[in-house]
């Protein structure tokens, strides 16, 4: 299949997976709102983010239709599945239906805890699992929130010259 769609809620990993594919495929990354007719002259694979953003508009839809028609290597990302994209160009409905699709979901506790553990380890910090569990329960359920909080905890631990403990995590959460 020359084209695939990754869809799911914010923080589910769509852009991360698309960026990995782009690096390996030598693809260019762009937002759907940046689709312009000049792209039809390029032959490189493309990652097109936020295809279900509104309004996409007829001109952008024509460009996307042409890319799909010629079998351009594409990875499309969106919040909703392709069946919900509702294009203005009727022929795009069948092209969307033919896409290979990969639904992604919000990360669960185990994934977020594993991510936090890895991010702390990347900073050479040994943090007890109980501290990570408490942190994940209190944070927004997204990889970005975990990444940002780990950086904040590392900075606080360095400035206070203390390890990352439950007390430190609680004090940082109270400030937020």
Reconstruct the topology from this structure.
Blueprint: E1 3-7, H1 14-25, E2 28-31, E3 46-49, H2 58-69, E4 74-78, H3 90-97, E5 100-103, H4 109-122, H5 129-138, H6 143-160, H7 166-175
Parallel strand pairs: 1-4, 1-5, 2-3, 3-4
Low-pLDDT ranges: none
Calculate the terminal CA-CA distance, rounded to whole Å.
Answer: 45 Å
Helicity level, as a percent range? 40-55%
CATH H-level superfamily of the largest domain = P-loop containing nucleotide triphosphate hydrolases
What is the level 1 CATH name of the largest domain?
Alpha Beta
CATH architecture of the largest domain: 3-Layer(aba) Sandwich
Number of helices: 7
Helix-strand pattern, N to C? EHEEHEHEHHHH
Radius of gyration: 20 Å
Could you say which structural class the secondary elements and strand pairing correspond to? alpha/beta
- Biggest sheet layout: 5 strands, parallel
| Widest beta sheet: strand line-up | 2-3-4-1-5
* CATH topology tier name of the largest domain: Rossmann fold
Form type? elongated
Number of self-contained structural domains: 2
Number of strands: 5
Q: What fraction of residues sit in β-strands?
A: 5-15%
Mean pLDDT: 93
Tell me what the structure shows:
With 176 residues, the chain is an alpha/beta fold. The protein folds into 2 domains: 101 residues, 3-Layer(aba) Sandwich (Rossmann fold), CATH 3.40.50; 67 residues, Orthogonal Bundle (Helicase, Ruva Protein, domain 3), CATH 1.10.8. Helix content is 48%, strand content 12%. The protein contains 7 helices and 5 strands. Strands 2-3-4-1-5 form a 5-stranded parallel β-sheet, covered by helices on one side. Strand 3, helix 2 and strand 4 form a beta-alpha-beta unit. Helix 4 packs parallel to helix 6 and helix 5 packs parallel to helix 7. The protein is elongated, with a radius of gyration of 20 Å. It starts with a strand and ends with a helix. The relative contact order is 0.15. The mean pLDDT is 93.
């Amino acid at each position: 299949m020359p084209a695939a769609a990754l869809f799911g809620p914010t923080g589910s990993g769509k852009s991360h997976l698309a960026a990995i594919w782009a690096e390996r495929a030598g693809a260019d990354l762009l937002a759907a709102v940046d689709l312009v007719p000049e792209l039809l002259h390029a032959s490189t694979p493309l990652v097109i983010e936020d295809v279900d953003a509104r309004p996409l508009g007829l001109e952008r839809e024509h460009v996307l239709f042409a890319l799909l028609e010629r079998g351009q290597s594409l990875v499309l990302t969106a919040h909703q599945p392709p069946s919900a994209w509702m294009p203005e160009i009727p022929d795009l409905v069948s092209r969307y239906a033919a896409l290979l699709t990969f639904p992604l979901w919000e990360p669960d506790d185990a994934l977020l805890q594993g991510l936090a553990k890895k991010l702390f380890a990347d900073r050479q910090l040994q943090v007890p699992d109980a501290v990570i569990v408490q942190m994940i329960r209190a944070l927004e359920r997204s990889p970005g929130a975990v990444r940002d909080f780990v950086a904040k905890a590392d900075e606080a631990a360095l400035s206070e010259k203390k390890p990352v403990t439950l007390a430190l995590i609680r004090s940082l959460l109270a400030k937020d």
